[in-house]
Amino acid sequence: MSFISPLALLGLIFVPAxxxxxxxxxxxxxxxxxxxxxxxxxxxxxxxxxxxQRLRRSLLLLLQILLVLILAALAARPFLERPAGLARxxxxxxxxxxxxxxxxxxxxRLTEAKRLALEALRxxxxxxxxxxxxxxxxxxxxxxxxxxxxxxxxxxxxxRVSPASGDxxxxxxxxxxxxxxxxxxxxxxxxxxxxxxxxxxxxxxxITVLEVGRDRKNQAIVALAVRQGPSxxxxxxxxxxxxxxxxxxQRQLQLYGDGVLxxxxxxxxxxxxxxxxxxxxxPVDVEVVEVRLEAESGLEGAADALALDxxxxxxxxxxxxxxILLVSEGDPxxxxxLLFLPNVNVFEVAPDRYxxxxxxxxxxxxxxxxxxxxxxxxxxxGAVMAIAPARTSILGEVVGxxxxxxxATLDPDEPVLRYVDLSTTHIGSAKELVLPxxxxxxxxxxxxxxxxxxxxxxxxxxxxxxxxxxxxxxxxQVAFPILVANLTGELMGGSAAPTEAVAPGDxxxxxxxxxxxxxxVTRPDGSVVELVAGTGGGASVSFSQxxxxxxxxxxxxxxxxxxxxxxxxxxSNGPSAATSASPSPSISPAASAGGSxxxxxxxxxxxxxxPRRFAVDLFDPAESNIAPGSASEIEALGGGGATPAPSGxxxxxxxxxxxxxxxxxxxxxxxxxxxxxxGDRPAARDELWVPIVLIALAFLLAEWIVYQRDxxxxxxxxARSRLGRGETAAAPRQGRGT
Amino acid sequence: xxxDGQAGxxxxxxxxxxxxxxxxxxxxxxxxxSDLDPTVFDEGFLxxxxxxxxxxxxxxxxxxxxxxxxxxxxxxxxxxxFRDYTLGDDLRQLDWNVLARLxxxxxKLYVEEEDVTIHFLLDxxxxxxxxxxxxxxxxxxxxxxxxxxxxxxxxxxAITSLGGRAGRRQVALRGSGRVFRLLSAxxxxxxxxxxxxxxxxxxxxxxxxxxxxxxxxxSDLLDPNADRVxxxxxxxxxxxxxxxxxxxQELDPALEGDLRLIDVESGDGIDVTVDLATLDxxxxxxxxxxxxxxxxxxxRRATYVPLSTSVPLTDLVFAELRRRQVVx
Lengths: 738, 328
What we know:
The complex is a heterodimer. Chain A is an alpha+beta fold. Chain A has 16 helices and 32 strands. Chain A starts with a strand and ends in an 8-residue tail after the last helix. Chain B is of the alpha/beta class. Chain B is elongated. Strand 2 (about 30-35) of chain A pairs parallel with strand 8 (about 255-265) of chain B, so a sheet runs across the interface.
C-alpha cells in the first residue's frame, strides 16, 4: 500500500495532542456536597484520579486516537497497485445505435454497456487517458484524451440512445485515428454487435469488445405508406412488419389517425419474415397516420425487446388536384364520368390540335392524357390511356375489329375491377388488340384478345380500352363511373405517393415561404426549434435535428409588421397563376372539379403557410435486428496483422462474452502491435478511501455511543423499569430497623 | 390541650426568632417559630400525637412520677402483685377484701409509674444544612413531633444540639403545656459554621445525661467516627434511637461529568469523574454504609431508622416510626 500524498501523515501529530488534552484536562466544575466521605471511599476504590489509570480505562480516548489515525490515513490517500489491464491511452467506443435501446438486459443494453465500460475503466493504469466516442448514426467524440475519470464517467453516463442505424465502422476508424496519437493505445468497444453495417476496415490497434445483449426477440415496423385507393376517394395504409425473432409471434397492429384509434387487428408473424398489412378506408381528413405494434390483445407488458421500432408515423400528403387531358372529338359519356371524379381538372382538346396546344404553360406535366381514337406517335409526359385506338401505336398493336365481343372470366382480385360489375355489359364492337408484354389484362375478351389492359410502359403508366364506351351499354350501367374512377386512379396513382419518411438524423430541406423570416419546427417531444432563413434569402432551410422518431411540424414565422400573405395574393404565386390561366385559347376547360376556384392547367396553389409536416421513422430492418452479433469478429479487426477470427459469428445463439475482465484477459494474449509497450505501463491504482471513510464513520458512531453510553443505559433502565413497574409496585418495602 | 389556652403567654427564655408583629397578636401564636410549618402542628395533628408514646423496650428508672412503668413498685392504679404484710407497712395498702374473706393480711402492690427523659441529640453540623428540604429542618420537625409525644405522655424532653465539639443542652421540659417552649428551643438551633466533631460533641452531650432514658439521635452520620458515636451512646444505658437523615440529593446525586466535590464542612475538594458507573458505585456504597449502621444498631440493641428528608412528617410519625415501634 502506498500513499498519494504521504505528507498528510503529518496529521498523526494530533495523536499525542489528543493524549495531552486528556492528561491536561484539569478544569473541573465545582460542586458543593454535604460531605465527601462517601465519595472518598468510592474514589479510593476505583483510583480514578490517577491519570494513567484513567487513560487505561478511557475507551473514548482510545477511539479518538484511532479516529485521528484513520483521518490521517484518509488524507494521505492510500492506494493499492495492481497490474493495469488496459493500455495507457484508451479509446472507448460506446454504441448508441437504436438496437442498444433493447431491454433484453435490464434495464437496457446501453445502460449495461455503460456499466461494463465504467467497470472496465478501473483497469486503466494510473494517469491513463481516455477518449470516448459515441457511435450513433455518425461517430462523435464526446471526451477527448482526458485523465479526468470523473469527466469520462459523466460523459458516459450522459450518453443516450440515438434512434438511428448505427455505423460502427466510422467510429472504429475514428477511434483508430485517435489511438494513433499514442504509443500504447487500445480501443474498447461497448456494443451489442448487432450491426446494421458490418465494419470491415482493419485497424492498427487492439480492440476489446464489451458485449451486451442476449436476446433477439423483436418485431419491427419496417415500412409504412399511405396510398390513395384506385378510385381516388379512399386511402389505404400499407404496413410492412418484420419479425426478426426466430420464433413466431403474435402482435396487435393498431392504426391511429390523428391520434384516434381507427383499427386494431391481431397479426401473426412468422419468424424471420416480413408481413404486409393493408388497412383500407382511412378517412379523407386524416392528416397523420400512426401505426403501433402492441402486445397481443389481453397481454400486458412489452412484447419485444426493442420498443423504438414498434411505432411508425406517416404524413398523408395534401392531395393536389389532378389534371386530365382528354384528346377527343367529344364523348359526353366519358366526359361526364371524368367530371364526377373528385379532385380532378379535366381539359379537352381536339385531336388535330394535339400536341401543339396541349403543352402546359406552367411547366408541369399532365397527370393523365386520354386519347379517344387516334394515338399520336409523340406522347407528352404523363400517364396515357387510349380508347379504341384506330391503329397500331406504341401502346399496342391493333389487329382488327371484334364484333359483339364477349367478356371472358374476370380476375376477382383485379383492383381496377373492384366494385365493377360487368356481368350485364354488352359491347357492340371493339378493336382486336394484342396484349403487349408490359401490360396485364384487366378485361379479357374473346380468344385472348384483351378488352382492357394496363401496365407500365417505359416508366409511364398506360392503359388501353379496346372499345368506345358509346359502342357498348357500359355507360348506361353503374359500373362505368366506377371503372373510370378505378382506372384513372390506377393510372394517376403514382403522383399521390406519400412523402418519404425521413431517416433519423438525416437533414430535411424545408421550403421557406416568401416573406417568412424563420421556420418554427416543433419536434415530437414538444421542443421547438426556430430556423432562421439565411441572409441570402434562400427559399429553403435545412433542418437536421431529426434525431427523434415521430412527426415534426414546421410553421413559417413572419415578421410582425408584414401582413400574412394569402395564398392567392402572394406575388410569387401571381405570375404563375397568370400564365397558367389560359395556356391556349383552344384549350377549353371542360369543367372544374375539386372545388378549385381558379381552374387551370397548373396545380392550384397549396397554402404555403400551412404547417408542413414530415415523419421521421426508423424503417431499418438491419437495425431492428437486435440479435447480438459476433464480438470476436469486431475484435479480429484490431491488432493490425492479426488474421480475422474464423467464421461462425453469425450464429444467433452465441453466448455473450463472460464479462469485461474475461474478455480483457482473452484479448491480452492476442494483442497485436499495440501491446508492444505494454510492459512500460504504470500500474492501476485502487484508492482505498471508501473503506477508510466507512471505518471512520463506524468509529465516529462508536465514539458517540461510548460518549452517550450513560444516556443509553438510562434509557434502557427507564424502559426496563417501566416494563417491570407492576412487579416492583407489588413488592413490599424493605425494612431496615431492628 | 388547646393551643388557644397558651396563646397569650409567651414563655421567657424562648430562643426563637422574634415574632413578627401582627395587628391581631392574640389571634396568632406569635411565638410559634416561623421556620416550623404551623400547619404541621395543627390541633388535629397534635391530638394524634397525644395518643402516641415514645416506646421503650424495658421499664426504666426515672425521677418524678410519670406516665411510664417503673421498675419500682409504688402508688398507682395499676395492680402488680400481693405480698404478706410486715410490720411498718402502710395500712392503706392492705387488701381489705382478702382480709375479710381469708382473714390474712396481704399488701397490694402497684406498679410505680415514673417519668423518663427523652434526649433529642440534634446533629447541627454544617452538612445538616444541605438538602431540600434541609436535613436540619427535617430533624427539627421530627424532634418537635416526637418531643410533643413525649410531653403529652408526661415524659421529660431534653433537646441537645451537637455542633462544633460540644453538645449544647437547649432545654429540658416536662408537661404538655411546654410544647411551645420546645418549639422555640428547636427553632433556635442553627447549624455550626465550621467542622463538627460529632464524636466529641456526642461525648459531651452524653456526659450531661442523668439516668437512663431514651436517646434519639437525629443525624446524617456523615462523620468518619459515626459508628463510634453510636457505640458510645448505646453504652450509656439509655435506649438509643437513631434517625439517620439523608436528603434525596444524597441518596441519588444528580451529578455528572468531571467534577471537583467540595466538602461543605471542611472545604476539602476531591476530583471525581461522575458517570453512570460511578453513580452506581456510589449508591452501592451508600447502601452498604447504611447497612453497616443497621448492623451496628442491631448489635447494640439500638433502633436504626434510615430516612429520606423527602418523607412527609405525618408519614414519618404515624407510619415509619410506628412501624419501627419507636412510637406506639
